[in-house]
Structure formats: structure tokens, C-alpha cells
Design brief:
The chain contains 4 helices and 8 strands, in the order H-H-H-E-E-E-H-E-E-E-E-E. By secondary structure, it is α+β, with helices and mostly antiparallel strands. It has 2 domains: 29 residues, no CATH class; 135 residues, Beta Barrel (Thrombin, subunit H). The strands form 2 sheets. A 6-stranded antiparallel beta barrel has the order 1-2-3-6-5-4. A two-stranded antiparallel ribbon has the order 7-8. It comes from Punica granatum (Pomegranate).
């Protein structure tokens, strides 16, 4: 262990000394710009307002695919996605939902409006993919897009996951 700590440079001196004498008080880390977690706890009303805004943009995706490759099975499945670009009709979901081969898919919005979706991208490395739909096909639901903000993500951030249970309905799960 000493060899790997030596490679860290001068920052490792305090850690190495603390490990040798058994004290753990010197093993504090400070994250630049981080505020204490307790200050950022959302109230139930905050979550309710946020969920009322985002749930209309969450869709249930129903896909049917043939066996495209030896590693992929044919079948039908349900998944969750959400609208990230309302004007262009783009839905973000997981890579395996978009499928590597031919797929027939529909998106069902919270008011039960259904629209066909077509795969436009499946990332080869990361677990995301995009479907496109005709935004004019949604006639009755008032919804907004959920903008992507990767710079806002951080370790320890409290989140809620909105999804579906086997295609039945969108629901919320605390995490």
C-alpha cells in the first residue's frame, strides 16, 4: 500500500501517517464547491411541483423486435423514456430499448395518447439511445420537454425516478 501512496505525491503524506497511527480524523476530503447535503434536501411540496412538471413528458415505450444478432433475442417489451426535445419530437431512453436491429415501437404518454416512434441513435458505449416521433401527433396533452443538464449531476444528489410498471402507467419511486 505504501508504494501506491508514494505515487500520489505530497497529498499522500497525511493519509499515510494517519493510516500508520490509526487515527481517522486526518482522512477528511473536501470537494470543491460542494455544499453540505442537509442544506439541499427537498421538501415533499418541492417534489410534488417537480413531478407535476415532468410526468407529462415521461412516456411508456412499447417495442417489438426481431432477432437481429446472435446476442439479441426477439420479443416485445416495455420501457420508460422522456421527451428531451419537444419541437423535434426526441425521446431519450436506454440503449437496449432502441435495439441494435429493426424495431417497431410506440410511445404512450400519461394521457394514453400513443404515437409511433423511430430509432435515431443508439450509443455504442454509453447506456442511452434516442427515438423520434411526430410532435404534431400529440393533440390533447400539454407537456414540456425535460432538458438534459449533465453538469447538474453530482454524487449524493437526492433523486426521484419516474417510470412505468410493465407498461401499465407512469409512476414515481423515491431513491
Amino acid at each position: 500500500m505504501g508504494d501506491s501512496l508514494e505515487r500520489l505525491g505530497s497529498e499522500a503524506v497525511g493519509i499515510d501517517a494517519a493510516m500508520k497511527d490509526g487515527s481517522s480524523s486526518d482522512l477528511c476530503m473536501e470537494i470543491d464547491g460542494a455544499t453540505p447535503f442537509r442544506e439541499n434536501v427537498a421538501t415533499a411540496e418541492d417534489w410534488r411541483k417537480a413531478l407535476n412538471q415532468v410526468v407529462p413528458a415521461v412516456v411508456v415505450l412499447r417495442t417489438t423486435a426481431c432477432r437481429a444478432f446472435d446476442t439479441e433475442a426477439a420479443g416485445a417489451s416495455y420501457a420508460t423514456g422522456f421527451v428531451v426535445d419537444k419541437c423535434r419530437g426526441i425521446i431519450l431512453t436506454n440503449r437496449h430499448v432502441v435495439k441494435p436491429g429493426p424495431v417497431v415501437a410506440e410511445a404512450m404518454f400519461v394521457n394514453r395518447e400513443e404515437v409511433p416512434v423511430h430509432p435515431i441513435y443508439r450509443d455504442p458505449i454509453h447506456d442511452f439511445g434516442f427515438f423520434r416521433y411526430d410532435p404534431d401527433a400529440i393533440q390533447f396533452l400539454k407537456y414540456e420537454e425535460i432538458p438534459l443538464a449533465p453538469e447538474a449531476a453530482s454524487v449524493g444528489l437526492e433523486i426521484r425516478v419516474v417510470g412505468n410498471d410493465s407498461g401499465e402507467k407512469p409512476e414515481c419511486k423515491a431513491s
